[in-house]
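Page 42, continued from yesterday. The earlier attempt failed because a stray header line got pasted into the input along with the sequence. Redoing it now with the clean sequence only.
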Amino acid sequence: MMDLTFSDGVLDAVVGLYSIIHLPREEQRELLRRIGRWVRGGGWLLVNFAGKEIEGSVQMGWLEEEQEGKESQNAMYWSSWGPAESRRLVQEAGFRIKV
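This time it went through. Structure tokens are written below.
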């Protein structure tokens, strides 16, 4: 996600479901700023965030069944700002929140 580049105002919408939460929090902040520039005025952003604040966490074996004696090689990173800060970052990026 962090390697994407677009010119300002060229996108009508961005959808990022179950993705942004896998970036470190500072990268989440930066990506939202970039998206705010890429999406034209009046465009749309559909994203989801975790419901609690998580500074950063790695969960091993998150898609595997536990197998005794076998160490998982499957890791997933998670982080989140929490609901209030996530809303603030979305608004700071230039989007209005519709509920």
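Notes: Residues 61 and 69 are 13 Å apart (CA to CA).
Reminder to self: strip header lines before submitting.
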